[in-house]
């Protein structure tokens, strides 16, 4: 073999992986955008027909979504988008409060000058959005999690990044639309709190940065609880 043509089984494997990745990305966006709401059933036969694929790539995509805790699959029942109870959402924010507080403390110790410049640019962008009345731009797909994610990366703690970025944040994004549509968003206040957190980190005051971040997330948790109980 001259190395130009790949074996048929390898071509099939690459094609399957490509189909799986495409379906995964489309389903992920559908879930995070609210097209597939929490609790909605996922019909495998319907999806396979819609995407023009076999069940194999589809099930691989569903397995990846299950790994992100965005869907649940049960024997003889099928798959559905995860729907967290009020208590589970509260617990999610409690864990986030502790872990992000720690991330801010570590970021104050380890943030590089390049990361500080990136943080300043991000905050300048958010400031312009708010000054122009673009509150929806301030909360795009990943929203102010961009700010939080940057601080977590700057903590230089791989375990924190994995637990928050790969495990908690997809679930948080799933419920961001509930915040956005509730009328309880407070972007000006959130931005002001972000500024104070950033200032503490840039000044290297990890203790203050941790306190401010925990208060910031605790306030969001209280607003969420109010939304869920009214």
From TrEMBL:
Keywords carried by this UniProt record:
DNA-binding, Transcription, Transcription regulation
Q: Which InterPro entries match?
A: GntR_C, TF_FadR/GntR_C, Tscrpt_reg_HTH_GntR, WH-like_DNA-bd_sf, WH_DNA-bd_sf
Q: Where is the HTH gntR-type domain?
A: 17-84
- Kindly provide the name given to this protein in its UniProt entry: GntR family transcriptional regulator
Origin organism is Zooshikella harenae
